[in-house]
Amino acid sequence: MFVKHKSLTLKYLNSTRTVLLILKDKIMSILTDNVIPGNHGKIFGTNAIEDLDLLEIKSSLLELDGIKDVLLNTDIFPREFTVHTSKMIPISAIENRVKLVGFHAIPKGLFEL
């Protein structure tokens, strides 16, 4: 009788572990595929070099619903910009918007400060 309960307990623990792993994957997918509203924003690298090109990228991104600010970092190469949002925005929407201007946007890692 004890062995049967132990088996059920192990099955329960394994299924709970599986559910937790699936939830972890879903949460990580949300974090890596979207820009989450908040103070950190999301940093992107770009192949745009000239200040005028970066300003064009900024103005194009600010037209997207939910983007509240774009900060340009022209002190480093490759150039970077940080996007702050008021709602969850897919990274693909930002990448596609920058492509329309003629450049690329490559998201940097999670929670870079």
UniProtKB/TrEMBL annotation:
Q: Which domain of life is it from?
A: Bacteria
The name on file for this protein is Heavy-metal-associated domain-containing protein
The species is Flavobacterium limicola
